[in-house]
C-alpha cells in the first residue's frame, strides 16, 4: 500500500462559514483510515480468526463453512475497499477490483449456503487466485512500497492457495474445512506481517 494522500488541511476551506469548521472530505478520512497500519491489522485478524475457527471445528457442516467463509469474504471486502483510499489514485484499480470480487463471492456464499462442495471450492479457488494475481501486480507496479516483498509473498501464497483448491477439489466437507482453515491462517499470518512492516515504515518516516 502506498503512502496515503490524505492530509490535514491548514486554514479555512474556501466557502467555509464564518466561525465554523471546514467539512472534511470523506475521501481524505477514508484515506487516513485505509492507509493506517491498524486498519491492515484489522484486515489480517478478519482473515486469521475464521481460519482458526475452521481448524478447531473441522466437523462443521458445509452450510456453516459456507456462511463463515461468506462472512469472511464480505468483511475482508469491506476492509479492502476502505484500504483502496489509502493508495494514490493511479494505483487503486487492482485493490478496487479485489474488494468487489470479495464482496460478490461473499454474497454468493451467503445466498446459497446449501451449495455443493464443488461449487464452494470453485468460489474459494477463483477468489484466491484472482485476488492473488491482482495483489502481485500491485506489489510489482508500486515500486515505492516499503513492504513490497512481504506483500508479494502474500500474493504468491494466495495464488498457490487458489490453484490448490481448484486443482484438487475436496471430496468431503471435513477435508474442505481443514484446507480452508489452513490457508486462511497462513494468509492471515502473512497479512499480519504486512501490517507490522507498514507500521515500521511509518515509524521510520515520522521519526
UniProtKB/TrEMBL annotation:
A Pfam family assignment: DUF308
Residue span of region Disordered: 1-27
Keyword Transmembrane set for record: yes
Keyword Transmembrane helix attached: yes
Stretches that traverse the bilayer: 37-57, 63-83, 95-114, 120-142, 149-168, 180-202
Entry-linked InterPro entries: Acid_resist_chaperone_HdeD, DUF308_memb
GO CC list: plasma membrane
Domain of life (superkingdom): Bacteria
Keywords associated with the record: Membrane, Transmembrane, Transmembrane helix
Record's protein name: Integral membrane protein
Source organism: Streptomyces davaonensis (strain DSM 101723 / JCM 4913 / KCC S-0913 / 768)
Amino acid at each position: 500500500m502506498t503512502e496515503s494522500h490524505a492530509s490535514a488541511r491548514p486554514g479555512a476551506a474556501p466557502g467555509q462559514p464564518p466561525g465554523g469548521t471546514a467539512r472534511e472530505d470523506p475521501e481524505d478520512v477514508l484515506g487516513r483510515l485505509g492507509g493506517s497500519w491498524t486498519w491492515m491489522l484489522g484486515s489480517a485478524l478478519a482473515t486469521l480468526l475464521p481460519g482458526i475457527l475452521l481448524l478447531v471445528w473441522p466437523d462443521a457442516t458445509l452450510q456453516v463453512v459456507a456462511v463463515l467463509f461468506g462472512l469472511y469474504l464480505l468483511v475482508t471486502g469491506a476492509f479492502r475497499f476502505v484500504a483502496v483510499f489509502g493508495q494514490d489514485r493511479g494505483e487503486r484499480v487492482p485493490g478496487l477490483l479485489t474488494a468487489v470480487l470479495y464482496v460478490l463471492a461473499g454474497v454468493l456464499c451467503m445466498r446459497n449456503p446449501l451449495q455443493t462442495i464443488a461449487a464452494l471450492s470453485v468460489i474459494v479457488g477463483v477468489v484466491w487466485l484472482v485476488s492473488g494475481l491482482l495483489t502481485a501486480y500491485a506489489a510489482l507496479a508500486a515500486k515505492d512500497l516499503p513492504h513490497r516483498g512481504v506483500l508479494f509473498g502474500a500474493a504468491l501464497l494466495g495464488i498457490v492457495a487458489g490453484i490448490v483448491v481448484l486443482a484438487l477439489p475436496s471430496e468431503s466437507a471435513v477435508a474442505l474445512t481443514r484446507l480452508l482453515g489452513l490457508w486462511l491462517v497462513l494468509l492471515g499470518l502473512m497479512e499480519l506481517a504486512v501490517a507490522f512492516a507498514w507500521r515500521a515504515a511509518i515509524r521510520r518516516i515520522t521519526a
